[in-house]
Amino acid sequence: MAGSKHLLDLKHAGRRGGVVVLAAASLLGIMTAPASASSWSSYLSNAAPGYESRRWADNGGRTNIKFTGCADDWTNSHVAVQLFKDTFGPDPYYSSQRYSECFKGSSSTSSGWWEDHGSGDYYFDVNGALFGVHVWVDDVTVNY
Known about the structure:
globular, five-stranded antiparallel β-sheet, 9 strands, alpha+beta, four-stranded antiparallel β-sheet, 21% helix
């Protein structure tokens, strides 16, 4: 009988230990920010001025838009990339960035960062102010 009582004490101690470990793991899970970084990739082919990319849902942290292997039908020197928030009214926009490095070869990359813009649905446009210039980009990657 003494052996049975000892086994029951161990069983209860094991449950208490498991509860403590589970509680600690839950607490740490609450305190740890979830990894919510996402991305998508595509390409641009003959994108006209004002072309709008696909939309993505962003939690509002940092957004990186990267172009690799760029060409256009005019100067082959740069493309303007601007981030917009998709809304029901006029879409608010964030700074425009000029990408030129990606025009130096098929593996050359230009990259821009937009920070702290709030959560919502976003998209970018290319060459919104350059009339008639079409753009080709071998690889577009958006990290958000």
